[in-house]
Amino acid sequence: MRIESDLLRNLLVCQEEQPTSTLSQDLEYVASLLRENGPTLADRYSWLEAMINHVPDYIYAKDLNGRFLFANNAVVLNNGLSSVDELIGLTDYDLHGPELAAPIAEIELRVIESGIADLGYEERALKGGPDRWLMMSRVPLKDSEGKIVGVVGASRDITARKMSERLMSVQAQLLEMIIAAVPANEFFETFSALLEKAAADVETAMFVPHGKAELRLASRSAPGWLKDTRVSVADMSTAAHEMEQFAASLRHPRDYVRSVEIRASDGSLHALLVLTLFGRSPEPSFSEFVTSAARLAGIAVDRILAEKRIRFLAEHDALTGLLKRDGLDHKLKGILTQAAHEGTRVAVAFIDLDNFKLINDTLGHDAGDELLREVAAAIADTIGPEGIAARIGGDEFVVVVPGAGEDLMARAQQLRGSIGRLHLVEGHELRATASIGLAVFPDHGASPSQLLARADLAMYRTKRDGRDGVTLFAFDMAQEASQKLLRQEELRRALNRGEFLLHYQPQKNLRTGGITGVEALVRWNHPTEGMIAPCNFIPMAEESGLILELGAWVLERACRQGKDWQDSGFAPVKIGVNMSARQFQDTGLTEMVADVLARTGLDPRWLEIEITESLIMKDIDAAVIRMEELTTLGVALALDDFGTGYSSLSMLKRFPLSKLKIDRSFIVESPNNPDDRAIVSAIISLAKTLGLDVLAEGVETEAQAQFLLSAGCDEVQGFLLGRPEPPEAIERLLPGEKSNQTL
Asked: Are 70 and 89 in contact (CB under 8 A)?
């Protein structure tokens, strides 16, 4: 253009003549030249055309019939033309066909007819791929008189912005799913659908690991994948590459296939996303988004699995995976409701492993836990999917089987057999027997609590009858349990009301004939039933835990009685007090004995605590420690009912005992039975060798006494000398005061 040449020439001359001039001075000079030598109309058109052609946006003008009057280079090139002259006079129908041109023509006609501009309309670009978007603005084209003669359009490529918006939307929804912790299968399906929305012509499929060498289809966006697709891989570390090759083999060479790993925080593989774009490659931003989304997906699945684990552990036992008590109650309630509606029966089995504590004590808790897992698996396998199983205590399980029929006992025996098979635990072959109790809905109860309580009662009947068996509940068991509960409450009240008293049975030296001691025996003077023997309430006190309180009362009362006799002028004698297993295992026993001796003022040497073999053999090391604590106080220890337990004779030398008491079962026939005579003689000889006194219990005849005397027995106790009597009756047998007596 002429004006351009003149301006440039004058500007160069100015720079040569005034090399030190500033930019503002140069611009002012150019402006003055423009004012003096103003451009012609042709010059202005050329300038306008040059500017429009340098704008990257699409700019065009059309007449009332939609024919192009003008367009910039962006429009020309986008339509595959080489110059604007090729475009002038054509319509969108000529360029794109009726289907694509009709929506554009409709909008432009509305602008022409209404004279109202259409601004900011987003639409897919007619060319450049399915993900290309334009922001369109169309305004009326008017002549110098203001008459509408056509339409002017301008559009801007907003593909990047639209992609960014879609990706942000997908990320937001992913975060929402992370917060909501939706189930994993639902998450994978939604994740696949979101990726499809982020780009056009995309197909997704999600595969999850199954075992160490197989991937299974978890979700898909299109029927391009069969529902049961399974892909074998060499290893999960190479699964992405192998899956990508497999997927590519199913697609056209022009299709883009990518396999993206979704990994857990610990690096393990959650899933593989298989992405296919048909006939094109993805935009870089889309590829980056998929990688980012996969990381978010890994976080989401981590949270989902953590939430699932938490929910699982809320209702299930962490060791065995079986239901807990709360979960059992919830499910059982639903089963019973359905059974009541359908008129069917439901069996509830209460299972308790026999002698499980022995396994824990001998092989350790790890072995015990492993055995519990084995038993739980055996129970689950036996009852099948129609039943439910729960672990409700250390070694206690409950099984619920809907639709119980006439084969109920047979199925229970099958369950017992499964539990009792050999289990390999830490190199040991163990057989876990079980006591099982059964209750049936609606025969034995209508609520979960009733059925569980009655199955529990039946289980205890199994244990009482020898264990390792199955017992069906009967209502007499409930009556017996009710009476037992009432008796326990009576025991508790009896302690508070002072209904217990002590009788004493004398112990005699066979050679001197003198009384050497007495054994304190508790009696219950019931207000309506009269005197109740210990065998009728001591086991119940042991079971309920009342034995600790009762035993403490017996010890203090016996020690106080011994001190009272001494204070009354009688010669001191040993006061024998029986100690139960619960008392002996109590960590506060030694302190309690010391306190009682201090309060009563009885010299410890006149207290003799009697313990049984079975008691100390439960935990020999702990028993020895407890026995040494007591003897340190100065208390004597007697081993009661010797010969009926299972202690090793070699273990006796570890026990700080002062006396062995031979059980009455060996004494009854000893005068006439050679075996009993030999056993008694051996026990007496053993005691003498170990430096222990020996006392024979249950002596009722002179013949027994004579045999024991000839065998070297020191002391005897039994009906021959006297039955247990109140303190005032015993006083008649006690020796008088001997101020210098020592024993």
From this structure: no
Tokens of 365: 């808790």
Residue type, 649: L
Q: Which two tokens stand for residue 741?
A: 């007596």
Do 47 and 38 meet the contact criterion of CB atoms below 8 Å apart? no
Q: How far apart are CA 146 and CA 490, in angstroms?
A: 112
3-state secondary structure of 76: helix
Do residues 408 and 438 make contact, with C-beta atoms less than 8 angstroms apart?
Answer: yes
Q: CA-to-CA distance for 614 and 644, rounded, in angstroms? A: 9
Question: Distance (Å, rounded) from C-alpha 90 to C-alpha 392?
Answer: 84
Tokens of 514: 């003198």
What is the C-alpha separation between 380 and 387, in angstroms, rounded?
A: 8
Q: Using CB atoms within 10 Å of the CB of residue 605, give its burial: 0 to 12 exposed, 13 to 18 middle, 19+ buried.
A: middle
Residues in the chain: 743
How far apart, in whole angstroms, are the C-alpha atoms of residue 702 and residue 687? 23
Contact 585, 535 (CB under 8 A): no
Asked whether 519 and 553 are in contact (CB, 8 A), the reply is: no
CA of 433: how far to CAs of 363, 372, 383, in Å? 17, 12, 17
pTM: 0.49
When the pLDDT of each residue in the chain is averaged and rounded to a whole number, the result is 83
What's the pLDDT tens digit per position in 301-324? 777 777 777 777 778 888 888 998
Residue 234 per-residue DSSP state? S
Each residue of 308-339: b (16+ CB within 10 Å) or e? eeeeeeebbbeebebbbbebbbebbeebbeeb
Q: Tokens 């006494």: give the residue.
A: 705
> Distances in Å between the alpha carbon of 227 and those of 33, 205, 221, 650?
78, 10, 11, 72
